[in-house]
Amino acid sequence: MPSPVFTISAKAIDLVARIAEKVGELKGSGVYSRNLRLRKINRLRSIQSSLAIENNTLTLGQVTDIIEGKRVLGLPHEIQEVKSAYQAYELFAWLPIETVVYENQQGYYDALETAQKTGNSEVFITFMLNTMQKICNQQIYTIKKMKKSIEKIMNSNKIAALLFFFCFCILAMKAGDRKEQDAGLWASAGVSHKPFAGKWEAIYALEYRSKENFRETSLWCGTVIADYVFNPHIKVGMGYEFFMNREADGGYSPEHRYYPEAIFSYRTGSLSASFRTRVMNTFTQWDEPYWEARNRLKVGYRIGESSLKPFVAVEPYHALSSVAERFTKIRYYAGCSYAFGRQTLDIYYLREDYRTSPFGRNILAVDYNFAF
User: Fold this and answer.
1) 167 C-beta neighbours (distance < 10 Å), count
2) How far apart, in Å, are the Cα atoms of 121 and each of 18, 84, 133?
């Protein structure tokens, strides 16, 4: 019996043991047994890299097309090599070993040359075992990273869903404790701009509101706001709103409102919070001006790395012109914000209750903004 042309070293035995352990860990993860597409992609990458080492010029895309039965422009013998390799390829089919070899061709050829010169394949075997261990480590790292990302997203989804569900239940209970109720749609579209290196922010918006269970127009409103941005957490400014209120006879009456405002915001990780306060003066050509303050506390939670951010908010109103009636009404919000590029879309439910009246309002609101 001819003697083997390699030496079984202690290092090789150690590498085999380590690889067996890694392979067991990979199989135990269940990723490859569940994800047939991942296994196929890894096999195609391995075949293409293995053939490229032997100077096959076909690309990964061409190899994929050949396996899928599509026509490919190429040398007939190279196409046949791909077909034969795909049928015969079984050694660690779910690990792209040849990809790593292809990325380190010089080491591959150096190991082959050394084996030929010495007549002993130990160096080449060690090189391949090191390659197998490296790819196993890479795959394990990728799987662990993927699982952490999935767990993070799932946990974020659970927190956001529980927060939204809790607040929705509260709003639903609030909606049910009033005998007189109305429903309407509030829809606004606006643009915002930050000139002077972002130190100022200008906002222009047009809003439509309906009432009587969506059947009638309530008002139209135009808004202009100019804020000075002190830092990422604080900005102050002035706002003006012009209302055209629909009257019972079908006509419209104008109403004016102006206010100073201050906004404080903070963000940590996926959680964000903001507090906005406004002191408003509202007047018409017939009524005396009246002052009131509104303070909104808003909390949002971004879902993982997505652009979705559910939020809840509460906003009480306080009269400043009347000593007898300080607290006038309160608004509750629950919804979701979606950012895409320079655009933002907010869709939310708003509940409005009045202190001295059994009347309550349920609002479906949609706000769109484009920043430039």
Assistant:
1) 21
2) 20, 26, 18
Q: Which of 296, 35, 305, 282 is nearest to 143 (CA)?
A: 35
Using one digit for the tens of pLDDT, what is the confidence trace for 115-148? 878 877 788 888 888 887 887 887 778 777 777 7
d(CA 55, CA 73): 17
Q: Which of 26, 252, 37 is nearest to 140 (CA)?
A: 26
Average of per-residue pLDDT values in the chain: 82
What crossing angle do the helices spanning 60-67 and 36-53 adopt, rounded to 10°? 120
Q: What is the pTM of this model?
A: 0.57
Angle subtended at Cα 132 by Cα 125 and Cα 37, rounded to the nearest 5 degrees: 140
**Within its chain, how far is the Cα of 330 from the centroid?**
32
Model pLDDT, residue 123: 83
Q: What's the CA gap between 123 and 108, in Å, rounded?
A: 10
Q: How far is CA 156 from the centre of its chain?
A: 11
Locus of tokens 């915002």: 192
Amino acid at 206: L
Q: What is the DSSP string of 313-346?
A: EEEEEEESS-SS--EEEEEEEEEEEEEETTEEEE
Instruction: Report how far Cα 279 is from the mean position of its chain's Cα atoms.
Output: 35
What pLDDT, in 10s, does the model give residues 184-208? 999 999 999 988 777 999 999 999 9
DSSP letter at 75 equals -
Exposed e or buried b per residue across 199-222, where buried means at least 16 C-beta atoms within 10 angstroms of its C-beta: eebebebebebbbeeeeebbbebe
Alpha carbons 101 and 115: distance in angstroms, whole number: 17
Helix (H, G, I), strand (E, B) or coil at 25: helix
Strand 327-340 to strand 271-283: parallel, antiparallel, or no bridges (unpaired)? unpaired
Contact 66/72 with Cβ under 8 angstroms? yes
Q: DSSP class of residue 276?
A: E
